């Protein structure tokens, strides 16, 4: 009796969807940073970024980033600060009796070259805390203790401005936006050194 032939069912393979690899984050540290007082006092050689109020003096900070050699579409960005330490670059001390403070990043109209070489004026102080808001983040620590590390995401306005600045320089301002009226309400006190802020970018090839 002839043996029956058994036909195997064809093997069906599910399609494999290959997703593009996520673009790696690019970390750019500030090549210069500093602060301006509400009376316009500042110094191009002072890298201290103390931000907030000390008595009748309010300070706002600025951060400059070199985006040369970067191109593409910016799809994400965040701003971060390391913890305070004893060696430069040092983000310094938390100098507020409040348990937390909110740092807000602002769009600035002042040219990066001006912030780097001649940042001292009342107009620049105002500019550092009055433009479009890029984002904000809370930080806290005990009074007169080292800053804790913190970071926050930047919004679509920031992404567009960063993308427009690719290949050149980008600047942003920093101000405490929850001042409660205390005499000592500052962050980054006694900070020193360039590179105190890090701009982390996700850039897709265009």
Write the layout of secondary structure elements.
Layout: E1 25-29, E2 32-37, E3 51-54, E4 57-66, E5 73-81, E6 93-96, E7 101-107, H1 112-117, H2 122-127, E8 133-139, E9 145-146, E10 150-153, H3 156-165, E11 169-176, E12 184-189, E13 198-204
Antiparallel strand pairs: 1-13, 2-4, 3-4, 3-12, 4-11, 5-10, 5-13, 6-9, 6-12, 7-8, 7-11
How would you sum up this structure in a few lines?
The chain is mainly beta. It has helices at 112-117, 122-127, 156-165; strands at 25-29, 32-37, 51-54, 57-66, 73-81, 93-96, 101-107, 133-139, 145-146, 150-153, 169-176, 184-189, 198-204. The longest helix has 10 residues, at 156-165.
Describe this structure as you would to a colleague.
This protein has 206 residues and is mainly beta. Helices cover 11% and strands 38% of the residues. It has helices spanning 112-117, 122-127, 156-165, and strands at residues 25-29, 32-37, 51-54, 57-66, 73-81, 93-96, 101-107, 133-139, 145-146, 150-153, 169-176, 184-189, 198-204. Strands 2, 3, 4, 6, 7, 8, 9, 11 and 12 form a nine-stranded antiparallel sheet that branches. The chain has a four-stranded antiparallel sheet with strand order 1-13-5-10, with helices on one face. A hairpin with a 2-residue loop joins strand 3 (51-54) and strand 4. It is globular and about 50 Å long.
């Amino acid at each position: 009796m002839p043996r029956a032939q058994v036909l195997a069912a064809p093997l069906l393979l599910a399609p494999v969807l290959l997703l593009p690899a996520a673009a790696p984050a690019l970390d750019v540290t500030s090549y210069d940073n500093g602060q301006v007082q509400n009376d316009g006092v500042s110094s191009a050689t002072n890298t201290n970024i103390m931000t907030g109020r000390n008595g009748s003096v309010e300070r706002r900070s600025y951060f400059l980033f070199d985006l040369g050699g970067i191109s593409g579409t910016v799809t994400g960005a965040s701003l971060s600060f390391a913890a305070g330490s004893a060696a430069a670059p040092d983000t310094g001390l938390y100098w507020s009796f409040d348990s937390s403070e909110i740092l807000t990043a602002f769009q600035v109209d002042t040219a990066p070259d001006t912030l780097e070489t001649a940042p001292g004026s009342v107009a620049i102080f105002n500019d550092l805390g009055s433009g479009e808001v890029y984002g904000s983040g809370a930080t806290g620590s005990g009074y007169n203790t080292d800053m804790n590390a913190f970071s926050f995401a930047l919004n679509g306005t920031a992404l567009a401005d960063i993308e427009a600045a690719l290949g050149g320089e980008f600047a942003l301002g920093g101000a405490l936006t929850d001042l409660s009226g205390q005499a000592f309400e500052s962050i980054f006190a006694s900070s020193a050194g360039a590179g105190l802020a890090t701009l982390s970018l996700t850039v897709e090839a265009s």
